[in-house]
Write a structure and sequence with these properties.
Blueprint lengths: L32 H10 L8 E5 L4 E6 L5 H13 L9 E3 L3 E4 L27 E4 L12 E4 L12 E7 L1 H5 L19 E4 L4
Antiparallel strand pairs: 1-2, 1-8, 2-7, 3-4, 4-6, 5-6, 5-7
Amino acid sequence: MTDLLGKSQTKNISKPNTQKIAGNQTKKLEMSDSRAKKIKHSYNVKDAENALLLQTRYGDVIIEMLPNVAPNHVARIKELVRQGFYNGLKFHRVIEGFMAQAGCPRGDGTGGSGKKLKAEFNRMQHKRGIVSMARAMDPDSADSQFFICYADCPWLDGQYTIWGNVVSGMEFVDMLKKGFGPSGMVSDPDEIVAISVIADI
């Protein structure tokens, strides 16, 4: 398998038409510094700046990012997370025993943020809970789409950029609605409720 996006249809993808909301237009719940610190500590991550809270309808998934092996991908993921890019996007492609894929603003695997990333292939292995970037045939075509492995997938090693690892909540990833057929496209898919950098909570 060389194309997790299904087809090399990602060429010449236009930037999604998104609307930015000014900070003064959004409401935030008041929270004391001590409570915020306690919440961050409860996630028990090594580095809150390089850890994500991915919320699903089933529960919270904690992803520790790996800036030591994929610094540019981690930086871009954090940038997109802080823009709110992923909030509400679908797990559009989910294959039982293989992986769950999300991060397409079009919801069909053909979209992205409009910024391609140079591959940062590394020696890490695609094992259960690993988070890696989806791409088209071009090694340098990864954008915003990523997948979470359900099982060990050694045939992907060295072919896709691993940038994170689920350290908590993998049971909730297991509960995502599965797709049908070889493509694994999901009818009425589950969505990412929100993703946050834990340091920002």
